[in-house]
Amino acid sequence: MNGRNSPRVNGLERIPRPFIIGVAGGTASGKSSVCSKIMDQLGQAGVEHRQRQVVIISQDAFYKNLTPEQDARAKRGEFNFDHPDAFDFEAMTKALKDIAAGKTVQIPEYDYVNNCRRDDGMQVHPVDVVLFEGILVFYFKELREMFHMKLFVDTDPDTRLSRRVLRDIQERGRSLEKILHQYTSLVKPAFEEFCLPTKKYADVIIPRGADNTVAIDLIVQHIQELLRPTKGGKRTRHNSDSFVGRPH
Ligand SMILES: Nc1ncnc2c1ncn2[C@@H]1O[C@H](COP(=O)(O)OP(=O)(O)O)[C@@H](O)[C@H]1O
Ligand SMILES: Nc1ccn([C@@H]2O[C@H](COP(=O)(O)O)[C@@H](O)[C@H]2O)c(=O)n1
């Protein structure tokens, strides 16, 4: 097993483990769906949670806890969850730094119905690939600079709004009226001010999100190629390679 704290020397260049991928994009653009597809195509579908070598972490796990007054505003769809100040940047950066250093880290679970972190969460054990997704993951410079690859999921705003309406009604216990009020007054302006300008930092822009199978295939191939084990300074190639580079 390769040491986790330093980049792995694999003959051609030093490939860091874990390989950390940032996935940004507007609300309901398909960030989570793209991450799931990448994870599945890296051969992780059906692998038991603790055995997985790829982990998906959502920036939403690092929303700050609300004061009672903020909570009351959130219930009216009037709290700005799309502003950078809504996130606990220190906790987010520390978690990612610890993961990069190969430590086992506890990531909170976020409860969108009650607008708070839940006590339970997931333990992230040392892995090969981390997919860190969220609307503002490229906004914070220190965080942005920790990504070895940056993806921006670029989906039409009307499509995003219609998906968000359905999702927030079905999964987040919201009413149509409050969703639309929050979207027009807070989500859309914040997207334009804070999220969209970070598209320029992306290495790859993925139009149409998870529907873009060509882009996802190319990204997966690139990750597999980067993390493939080497022999005599050259990366080995196996027809049966479903995932990146076991054994290390
Ligand atoms: N290509 C797609 N076609 C139809 N529905 C989609 C597609 N991609 C995502 N969705 C749906 O849209 C909603 C938001 O997708 P998600 O991947 O969670 O986006 P994000 O992580 O950017 O918020 C979810 O309900 C998801 O099932
Ligand atoms: N309590 C909360 C927390 C967040 N939101 C909204 O979620 C969006 C980010 O999640 P995506 O999966 O859509 O990227 C963001 O736009 C927040 O407005 C919320 O409504 N309530």
From TrEMBL:
Pfam families: PRK. InterPro entries: P-loop_NTPase, PRK/URK, Uridine_kinase-like. It catalyses: uridine + ATP = UMP + ADP + H(+); cytidine + ATP = CMP + ADP + H(+). Pathway: Pyrimidine metabolism; UMP biosynthesis via salvage pathway; UMP from uridine: step 1/1; Pyrimidine metabolism; CTP biosynthesis via salvage pathway; CTP from cytidine: step 1/3. SUPFAM superfamilies: P-loop containing nucleoside triphosphate hydrolases. Residues 20-214 form the Phosphoribulokinase/uridine kinase domain. GO terms for molecular function: ATP binding; cytidine kinase activity; uridine kinase activity. Its EC number is 2.7.1.48. The keyword Aminoacyl-tRNA synthetase does not apply. It is an enzyme of class 2 (transferase). Keywords: ATP-binding, Kinase, Nucleotide-binding, Transferase. NCBIfam families: PRK05480.1 (NF004018), udk (TIGR00235). Belongs to the uridine kinase family. This is Uridine kinase. It comes from Lottia gigantea.
